[in-house]
Every structure is written in C-alpha cells, then in structure tokens.
Amino acid sequence: MKTACADRERGSKGKGNREKVVLAYSGGLDTSVAIRWIMEKYDLDVIAVAINVGQVPGGDDIIARAVRNGAVKAQLVDAKEELVSEYIWPALKANAMYQNIYPLSTAIARPLIAKTLVEVAKKEGARYIAHGCTGKGNDQVRFDVGIASMDPDIRIIAPMREWVMTREEEIEYADANNIEIVIKKEGLYSRDDNLWGASCEAGMLEDAWVEPPKEVWTHTVDPAEAPDQPEYIEIEFEAGIPVGLNGRRMRGVELIEMLRDTAGRNGVGRIDHIEDRLVGIKSREVYECPASVTLITAHRAMEAMTLTKDVIEFKRGIEQKFSEIVYNGLWFGGLREAINAFIDKTQKYVTGTIRMKLHKGNCVVVGRRSPYSLYDTGLSTYGKDNSFDHSSAVGFIYCWGLPDKTAAIAHKKK
Ligand code: ARG
C-alpha cells in the first residue's frame, strides 16, 4: 500500500498531549466540516486519511486542504491493489450481486477502508476513529463492525450521526469557521465511487418516479447514444480470476479500469432499483457498474462451461448468502471466510476465454472456450459425430420415472 502524507508545522504529535482521532476523509463537504467539528467538540487532534480505492480523482489537492482546515496530519493511502486482490476477486468468484442486481461495489470497499483506518490508528497511537456516515445507511454498520472486528478497543466517532446539520447549515458552519470547501454540482447527490462501481443516491433521486438526470452518470454513456457498431472483447480467466483482456495479460487494477472504460462507452452497467437496506429502510439506488457487470456475466459463463451441474446449483445458494453477509457488514466474520474457502475450491478449473459483445447497454456472451471444458460436442451434437449412446436413454428413463409411474398406478386403483 502506497502512502503520501502532509504534516502541519506543529507536527504529528499535535498540540500538547491531545489524543488523536483518525478520520476517514474524502475531501467533500461533510468530512471537511467534520475536521473542525471534531476538534471543537471532542478536543482531539485530527489525522485525516483519504483512501484511494479507484475513485475518479477530484483534481484538487484534498490532502493539503485537510491540513489547512485544521488536521495535524493528512495522508493519502493507495489501496487499489489490495481492493482488487483481497475483496473484488473473492466477490467476483462468488458472482456477488445483492438482491440479484447490485454488484456490491460500495459494500466490498468498506471493510478495506475500515482495516486501513485501524492500521493508521495503530501506527499513530490513536484511540479514536471517525467516519462521515449518517445513521440511516449500511455504511455505518460496515465501518463500525469492521473497525470493532479489527480492534475492539477503538472508539468510534460519527459526526454525521450526531449532528443535525443540513447541507446548507454545513456550508454556513464552514463560512463561519473559515473552512475551505469545494462545492461541486454533483454534491447534490450522495456518491461513492471505486473500481468496482459507483453509487448515487438522494437529491432528486429520492422521487422513485423520476428518471435519473444526465449528471448522475459519470462512467457510462446513455445506451441510446452509444456507438452503433458493437464492440467485441475477450476476457481470459485463470482459476476464476481475470488475467487478460483482448489477448494481453494485465494486472487486476489495469484490467478493471480498462473494462470500466470499454463497457462504459457502450452504455453497459447502469442499474436503477429500490433496495432493502440492513436498517430496514427501502431506498432508491442508482449504480454504474460497467466493469463488474461485464466481469460477473463473463465469469458466470466460464463457470457454466467448466463446473458440474451440482456444483453450479449448490454454489448459487452460497453466492446469495455471501452477498448478504457482505452487504450486511460482516466481511471479517468467520462465515464469510468459510464460504470463500468453499468457493475457492470450486474455481480450480474455471479457466479459459470468454468472448463478449458490448452494444448499446448490453453485454452478451457470444463465445467461450476452456482447456477444462465440460461441454462435449460428441455428446451434445445432433450431427454425425455423435458419441452418446441413445439406447441407454430407455433404461434411464424407466428408472427415473418409476416413482411417479408407481404412484399413478396406485392412485388409479383407488
Ligand atoms: N446502498 C449501497 C450500499 O449500501 C450504496 C451506498 C452508497 N453510499 C453512499 N455514501 N452514497 O452498499
């Protein structure tokens, strides 16, 4: 994990003997205001930590701004590689989709962020961690449970859960306290973005009848405006993990970033649905997941060719359980680990290449091949190279249908 950091003149020990809090900082309005609010209300020195999980760079120097806004120290941690190898690939192998539609893009990055915050807190000798989640969402659960699983002695501060400031009041507070903020038009929505996908909620999206306006979408073009010509891609898998794109081997981060662009420019990966949060609330969610939707579709197709029927069917139930566990913030629990151990075992022969056609919002598998293919044309063909023993079908059907036939005879007698 790479780390860049900035210190205030007074150094990382802060003023006198004040205790320290590590703040999960994004550079947005909430966490910028939170720096000052925590300093005042809790009398703590704030160490702001921005964690790069592949969100589109804001362009402005959020680290320096955190220090100007009062943080004793601010750092940027690059966690992209770890996100891919330890969180995204297990989710892909599980074909993870919460409620069969959401690829869990926000949910899988939260445990990694929690873990990183705990690591920084240990290094800095901080006993507090702060995050900007509200009291209504799933993310607070994922952070609080994740942090407690890593270090049960850490105390958690969640300013947004405690204060009752509206967006306008936050801006007023910032003005009154000389807090430097950058107000973005996209700030009208609650956003989260990483390599596996972006989510957008609140603002005018709260009206479930309103179609998401153009400015909601940042990674995908409108399928109606996508190119008229389809784009073909080839994804190469080894033991369930994508290792190459269009004939070129590449590392996970690069592969996902490339797919995000390719699928995004063909309008693939837009999701708009009503979701059931862990805290019992239904919410309207808009996601853009071009890379994850494409990869999960491809991975499922690779499994269809290389896994036996019973494994596929049993795994389907496990996949759903995995998705719920991750959504519900229990990443560091024993069940998630055990499920991943099972899934890893199933992936040994999930190797080969999937060919896909991306076109105006659709991604469709149009070809597949594998050195471990269970698809045997000798068995499936209706042509002359048939190797299936037709005569065996008669005996098989006699036994297979025997229970129902026996019942029919018995019922008829009565
Ligand atoms: N509902 C999704 C989830 O719980 C997305 C949450 C997005 N968070 C946000 N701050 N916009 O995983």
* The CATH fourth-level homologous superfamily of the largest domain: HUPs
Provide the gyration radius in Å.
25 Å
CATH fold name of the largest domain: Rossmann fold
**Strand content of the residues, in percent?**
15-25%
Number of contiguous helices: 14
Largest pleated sheet = 6 strands, mixed
Number of strands: 15
Strand order, sheet with most strands = 1-4-3-2-5-6
Offer a few descriptive terms.
Argininosuccinate synthetase, chain A, domain 2, 5-stranded antiparallel beta sheet, alpha/beta, 2 domains, Rossmann fold, elongated, 6-stranded mixed beta sheet, binds arginine, 414 residues, single chain, 14 helices, 15 strands
Describe this entry's structure for a reader.
By secondary structure, the chain is α/β, with parallel strands linked by helices. The protein folds into 2 domains: 2-192, HUPs (Rossmann fold), CATH 3.40.50.620; 217-369, Argininosuccinate synthetase, chain A, domain 2 (Alpha-Beta Complex). It is built from 14 helices and 15 strands. It has helices spanning 29-42, 62-68, 80-93, 105-124, 139-150, 159-162, 167-176, 252-265, 290-306, 309-327, 334-346, 377-380, 392-400, 402-413; strands spanning 2-7, 20-24, 45-52, 73-78, 128-130, 155-157, 190-194, 197-201, 231-238, 241-245, 248-249, 270-276, 282-288, 352-359, 362-369. The strands form 3 sheets. The protein has a 6-stranded mixed sheet, with helices on both faces. Strand 14 (352-359) and strand 15 form a beta hairpin. Helix 1 (29-42) packs across helix 7, helix 8 crosses helix 9 (290-306) and helix 10 packs antiparallel against helix 11 (334-346). The longest helix is centred in the first third of the chain and has 20 residues, at 105-124. Residues 9-14 have low confidence and may be disordered. The structure holds arginine. Residues 106-107, 138-139, 190-192, 199, 201, 275, 285 line the site of arginine (ARG). Arginine binds next to helix 4, strand 7 and strand 8.
